[in-house]
Amino acid sequence: MDDKGALPPSGGTGHGGAMSAGAGGSFASLRAYGRALAQTPRRVARRACAATAPGEEMSRVRARSGAHMARALRWWDLVGLGLGGMVGAGVFVTTGRATRLYAGPGVVVSYAIAGLCALLSAFCYTEFAVDMPVAGGAFSYLRVTFGEFAAFLTGANLIMEYVFSNAAVARSFTAYLGTAVGVDAPSKWRIPVPGLPEGFNQVDLVAVGVILLISVCICYSTKESSLVNMVLTAVHVAFILFIIVIGFVHGDARNLTHPADPSQNPGGFFPHGAMGVFNGAAMVYLSYIGYDAVSTMAEEVERPARDIPIGVSGSVVVVTVLYCLMAASMSMLLPYDAIDPEAPFSGAFRGRKGMAWVSNVIGAGASLGILTSLMVAMLGQARYLCVIGRSGVMPAWLARVNPRTATPVNASAFLGLFTAALALFTELDILLNLVCIGTLFVFYMVANAVVYRRYVGAGEFGRAWPTLAFLAALSLVALSFTLVWKLAPAERGVRTGLLAACAALAVATVAAFQALVPQAHAPELWGVPGMPWVPAASVFLNVFLLGSLDRPSYVRFGFFSAAALLVYVLYSVHASYDAEESGLDGAGAKVQDEACTV
């Protein structure tokens, strides 16, 4: 394990004894906190770029959780978790909206584009997860590469994407459960609250109950949760195949090109053009959050070097095929402008003579798929928060692993309550836009990190500028491509010429970097193929998909990032400073290094 490329832990006990964890450190009293705030610029300068070594993440940092998570998962568990996590959330929540509002029948291509982007990102995740099998996912990967602040900002967005995604999926569960028992309108299952703003005035007690029930289940055991997920996912995949067959048998190919109301809506397979397809791809990217959850299970995998590549990449490929087939099936059942965005599949059979039973079966099956996706996502979000707690930037009690269940009970319970509170009030469209932008940002960061780690040698931070310059240039070219796509006039081939020039510049940038800058680090067990082309393509596609989102998404994302920055400055930087100065775990006991086997 090559861990020399990370900065050593800051400090020691020689000049930080006054800030020991046992004494409370920066938070021992108001006076101590005031002194800590006065030192904020110095502490940020010291801690923001401080990276940990991979070996340290897997020994000293992991020991802060107390008991170890049990290594009991194999590759088939990971594939099952990936299928359960992705399919339920993607098709049953976002397909209807992406089809109706953006892509039309071209949502099939939207899913293919989003799947390709997810697969490229999955390769980047896999290299990190095999080399450093800990539960922190992207947070840990960025912490050992770019340092604490980049990891914290990413970790905040990861928690955001999981909490908002789970809240969105739980509210969708209400719609499908109503369909399964013969209640068509989701509003009948929700309680209106006068006086609250639009989008926050429908109380959903069913969604809250589902989230709390799953929270209790995942606190019990990871292996048993995986077995339950495998059973539910097997039934769910059978249901998916049923959906696909029903769509192709009872659908009409005319619906792929003819809208229900031609006077109001354009026709064709791509009614809103290529821009609509890519806007749809950005929205359905929510569907692929599940594979990220699989990467957080690395600390509980028996043989990471073999099981993680199969589990992560394999689940993305299988799910992409299923998504495309299901999107085609739905598009054949109804014209795109007649699709119900709340419950697209069950709504397709509503009112059809002799087919009412199909709508009920679809509602029941969709509810089952949503349960599996919630279980996997909530398993993942708890492990992210657990590792963030280990790092010292959040309270240490979140990092504790229960010795009897070998699960992060504190993090699971805390996020379960937070997600339930959000699902109680917030509407689906508000949640989905926040999730998309958070997901794309995190995947973009991980793709940059895997390139940096390969090309910047151990301890050679002074020679990092060629790689940083390449990553900045590639992002700027991708941003230019995106701006041309959205803003340049389409007449006389102006936009086409500018897009071709940007694409050629991107290819030339990657080729020049590959020819001029040698790799400094070779992964021992598994590496991203086609370096640097694969992560470069992931960077480019993620920037492009980020550019497809609407302005309100960026406004909300900016507010959330600003809030995360405020938390870092007021709390996290001081907590991590105290933890590293004292060298103590969250309970006040000296942390000892432990051997780690991969």
TrEMBL record:
It comes from the Eukaryota. The chain crosses the membrane at residues 75-96, 108-128, 140-160, 227-249, 269-289, 310-334, 354-377, 430-452, 464-485, 497-517, 529-547, 554-571. It holds the Pfam family AA_permease_2. The keyword Transmembrane applies. It is a multi-pass membrane protein. Signal peptide: none annotated. Belongs to the amino acid-polyamine-organocation (APC) superfamily. Cationic amino acid transporter (CAT) (TC 2.A.3.3) family. This is Cationic amino acid transporter C-terminal domain-containing protein.
